[in-house]
Every structure is written in structure tokens, then in C-alpha cells.
Amino acid sequence: MSWAGGDFGERGRCVLAPNANMMTLDGTNTWVLREPGARRSVVIDPGPSILEHLDAVAEQAGEVGVVLLTHHHLDHSEAAREFAERMGCGVRALDPAYRLGAEGLIDGDVVEVDGLELRVVGTPGHTADSLSFVLPAERTVLTGDTVLGRGTTVVAHPDGQLGAYLGSLDRLHALAAEHEVAAIWPGHGPVIDDALGALDFYIAHRRERLAQVEAAVLALTNESTLARALPHVDLDAGSGATVTPWAVVERVYADVDQVLWPAAELSVRAQLAYLTTRAGAG
What are the boundaries of each domain within the chain? Predict the structure, then answer.
């Protein structure tokens, strides 16, 4: 599936960064949003510090009211300060380290620029500082890396937390089920026109992977219950436990390109941490 960005709805323009790789898919989606007829725009995730990309974003954006970040990963945030200084505006983010100016972002905030309204939805899990932005006028949600336009995202332990991520998927699913959003404008890959269907898939996929990880742990430890098996798991190396996340990856992700196994290992660590917490709570 080819993806090159473009215009969406009456308010959205995706400028695709030239940083394609196995993790970023076709590249990072930088979103330029503007109310029809308005003077200023909002730029979400300026992306990497690549001059040709920032020039293209500046050309599409014109005067910029504010830069917003979905999360801190460099393929989304690296050029934020540089671009904002160039355009004479601030950067708003959940993490204070990535802000330019006094204003941050938290769940429930409303960002308004020349009639364009965005509602901030806290969606932690991919990272602790992950945010999504609902654009009510287009009935869409910009999800950063929480939901991708193709494939599924990595929940990278320890910053990524599976329990939080599952909660975020449920929150986005509720917005779709209540018809507040119909489409997803992601941080990588193509626009998704069926938000509810995509979120159904994401939730089912996570539950399936979690069950596969649990089954792998039981098989590798030759135990009958998770409570008995988890003490044999070595989450961070060096404990002397007998089962490593990599051994789980070899079983659960055997059908996945091995180039992606290091990223899968981070997700497995998050899954094992979640299972451990759940078992302790039980």
C-alpha cells in the first residue's frame, strides 16, 4: 500500500517526512490543520530535523499558531523547537522537556486557533506522554503512534505500559462507538476511514498476543499456572531466572520478520510486566 500524505477533509494536510524505515513505515506524518479561511494553522509533530521536510511543512502551514506533539519520540519531536522558532510560535506537549513557551498540554485541554478546535485526549501506553487530538469538525482523531495507519504499534517497556495502552484503546474505542470520531489520522501510514473497525482490530490483536505470550511462558517453564510460571521469567536480565523475553519472542513472533524482533522484544517485556502486575493484583 502506497502512502504519500495529501489533503483530508476541509482542514487537514499530511506532509510526509522522508524518514521511511521498518519502524516509521512510509515516514512520519506531519499534520497541518487550518480552519477554512483562517489565517493561522496548527502543526502536529513536525518530525525529524530534515530541512526539505521543514520547508515543505512551512509552505503548507503559512502562519503557525502553535506546534503540538503527540509524544516525545524523535521521529515526531526532533524538529519541534527548531520549526517553532523558525515560525515564531510555541510548542505544547505533555512532557515539559519538549515545550517551547509556558503552555503545556494535559488530558481535557481544548486548543483553539482561529476557529479550529482540538480536544486533547490522554492516551498513554505507547509512551507515558502519548496524547491524541480529536478534531470534532472532521469527526477524526489524530493518534500519533497509538494507532498506526498500517500494522500495529510497539509498546516499549519500560516507558511503554501495556495496561495504560489497553485503557487508551478502550477510550478511543468509546469515542468511535459514540460516533464522536469516524476516522483516524495516524502518525505513520495512511488515514483510516473506519475508526471503530480499526480499534476493534487493535484491541483483539493485543488480547491475542497477550494470550500467546502467556501460553509461551507456561510452555517454556513447564508450569500449569501463570502464578507458578512468572517467577521463572527474567524481565531485565541478570536475575538468574530461566525464561527470557527473547525466548518468548522466538515462540510468539516466529512468523514475523526477524528484523522486527528487537522491537517485538520490547513489547514482550511490556506484556510480561503487565501479566506480572495482573497476577500480583489477583
Answer: 6-193, 206-281
